[in-house]
Design goal:
single chain; about 80 residues; alpha+beta; two-stranded antiparallel ribbon; 3 helices; 4 strands; globular
Length: about 80
């Protein structure tokens, strides 16, 4: 996996989307972390699958102080 995230941040993110939509394992990082071209080999520290715009905004708000790089939908960089 890539960047290691603090367990408290992962818990906080899970409180927004639900633990079942937070993945920190290598298999999920490989599956969700590659784009359709298969050219780039990103190594996400966590994969979060929000379902609503409100969840996306909450995730950005919570993670803003640490400023991790975020990718939305496997290719659009959001900062």
């Amino acid at each position: 996996m890539g960047i290691e995230f603090d367990a408290s941040l992962i818990s906080e993110l899970a409180s927004i989307v639900g633990q079942e939509y937070v993945y920190t394992d290598t298999e999920s990082a490989t599956f969700y972390g590659s784009d359709w071209t298969k050219v780039y080999k990103p190594a996400p520290g966590a994969v979060i699958l929000p379902k609503t715009i409100k969840q996306v905004l909450s995730l950005i708000h919570i993670s803003e102080p640490t400023r991790p790089e975020r990718i939305a939908d496997g290719g659009v960089w959001v900062k």
